[in-house]
Amino acid sequence: MMKRLLPMLFLFLSLHLAADAQQEKRKKDFNLSGSSLAIEGYDPVAYFTQGKAIRGNAANALVYEGVTYHFSTPQNKETFRAAPARYEPQYGGWCAYAMGKNGEKVEVDPETFKVLDGKLYLFYNKYFNNTLKSWNKDESSLRSKADLNWQKLTK
Length: 155
Fold this sequence. Notes:
Strand content: 15-25%
Helix content: 40-55%
Order of helices and strands: HEEHEEHHHEEEEHH
């Protein structure tokens, strides 16, 4: 009995350690504030359902693969839980324009965003520099470059 139990225990521990390592990598790749909070606490589902940035509430928090999201309603939390990849911001929540232009991780203003082809893109918008305007001028090229740059950064 012990001979069968040891390989199963080893497999379980290996899978658990691999999952922990993957979550830690995601935390390093994503734009997170304290306690692994994504999008500065804004509700990722609201961008899609209400077309605007709405602050989430810690009472409606959900941790997905090491990243914490806050939601404005329990319904939005459940919507996210059903399809998290659909609602997570692109490029780990970093500025889409900077990711496309230079492959850089740049902070964002969660209220400056665009939903395009069912995906959420966030942008830097401070000191008279709204990168969403620059993104809109060359969106197709910047999005292709950002996709490639993000793949390189997250390998």
